[in-house]
Amino acid sequence: MKKHLPFAILISLQVASAATITLSSTDFGFARPAGTITSGNHAIGWYGGENVEIRQYLVFNRSSINGTITAATLRLQSSDSSYLSPSPTETWQLFDVTTPVATLLAGSGGASAFDDLGTGTSLASRTVGGSTNNTVLMLDLDANGLSYLNTQSGVFAIGGALTSLNKANGITEAMFNSSNSPSFTRELFITYTPASEPAVPEPSTCLLFAAGLFTLVATRKRT
Which of 69, 95, 215, 218 has the most CB atoms lying inside 10 A of its own CB? Predict the structure, then answer.
């Protein structure tokens, strides 16, 4: 039995393996200040023709993930006329959503649902501009974003807005304009540690095991 101990110690040092999954958005659209929604188009910004701001929502379902999410990237496609602004760049920012998804999709959340899509905890942000037209934009969620995903157990929403708007009458500042193509990419690429995997050992624990293994091997040689 003793000759199997070194192997058992090595097995105990296994590092948890990562798994990946792509979640396609199950619903998406934008909301107006009164909370009314337009589904099937994830545009954001200030539209000068109406002098109104719109904010996007993207709905996902993480029930297929049983484990801890360690990385997540939102992939969102833009059209060839996606960016409309007199400014060379704008800031696109993602937010947590506390409005119940059913309320959001029903358009019954009122002004508070609209506010929710562009305020609260920031999950990620990046600069957008004319160069991001006709591309699949990638936005890595930060620590707050990962924490938000890990608190979800089923269907949840992510909000998005342009947070650098000047909101001048008659002037349009928009991103993801004409984003209503059904074939566009709208997905979360997620890396996670399955719940059934062993935890990654601390460096000090690894050193302790290694020292024990060395001592065990040396003792066996002397005997």
Answer: 95
Q: For the chain, how many structural domains are there in total?
A: 1
pTM: 0.82
The C-alpha atoms of residue 76 and residue 186 are separated, in whole angstroms, by: 5
Residue 90, domain member (yes or no) = yes
Tens of pLDDT, residue by residue over 136-176, are 999 999 999 999 999 999 999 999 999 999 999 999 999 99
Residue-number span of the structural domain to which 118 is assigned = 15-222
